[in-house]
Amino acid sequence: MRRKLTYTALVKTATLVCFLFAMPFCVSASDTTHIAFTSERDGNAEIYIMDINGKNLRNLTNHPASDFSPAFSPNGRWMAYVSKRDGNGEIYVMYLRTKVSRRLTNDPRSDWNPAWSPDGQWIAFASDRAGTFDIYKVDINGANLQRLTDEGNNHNPSWSPDGQWIVFSSVRARNHDIYVMNPDGKKERRLTHQPQSESGPTWSPDGKQIAFTTALLGNRDIYIMDADGGDVKRLTHHPAADWFPDWSLNEESIVFDSESETDSDIYRINIDGSNRQRLTHHPAADWSPIWVPPTFSLSVSPTAETQTTLWGKLKNPRSN
User: Fold this and answer.
1) Most buried residue, 33, 173, 212, 302, by most Cβ within 10 Å?
2) Distance CA 161, CA 205 (A)
3) Residue 129 · residue 145 · CB < 8 Å
4) Residues 124, 250: one domain?
5) Residues 214 and 220: beta-carbon distance below 8 Å
6) Does the pLDDT value for residue 13 go beyond 60?
7) Does the reported pTM lie above 0.90?
8) Strand 198-203 versus strand 209-214 pairing type
9) CB-based contacts of 186: which residues, under 8 Å, 6+ apart?
10) Domain housing 309
11) CATH assignment at residue 36
């Protein structure tokens, strides 16, 4: 019995040592949360990932062309994003463990705003390949392309958690409003009816609410409404323009970018509007933040800061 316990202890110790000091090693987010975003801090747009406190910043893309608008598969293994590496905006998909990317769309016009379906089988996106921007969807192999809208200019699709709806913003009759539709483009209906511009809608994880940005009361802030368009509430109250909200998985906070007179940075705020926190502090623009699935894993090389953070988490699994 003592020999068995000793062997078990040795295995655990060896695993801990390998976990802390192997190079490269795998950082799993099963006990933490990460935020991905786009930044121009290296001279062109690239996608980065950081901890929820803004620490442990590292590249997910590194290419002379612009890479932006990350979206993660539900299992956390893949990232869809937009890249101009072939001359125009196209959707690419990266396998995160190897950082190897493949091109998903191929059209002379621009493809933007990828959004992964909850079942992991489809990617919705906006494209002007038919002359004006519309919402399309394509399967994860780049096949079965379907055009879902055919009126106005349409952007920023977001799937409902049950996969039954897609919310998006649309410019029609000079009004920029938020609409929903089924994944086949049917049963479309308008949710907002204000003269101000509403954009960047995203579903809450429980599917009951939608966060978006609008200048309803003069300044562009983050708002929340019920999934049917009712009970609109203002979340942020700041002189700077706030854009592109995204919900945390526990629905306790929202991450967004805020545009001051000099630059744009990533912020986080509680769902009750309290505790606005600035997460990035760089003179270059940071924008389009998105919460990363808890199953996310990425092969990285350890730094002193990363090792210290991991050691703290192993000692206290409840720490963030």
Assistant:
1) 212
2) 6
3) no
4) yes
5) yes
6) no
7) no
8) antiparallel
9) none
10) 1-23+302-320
11) 2.120.10.30
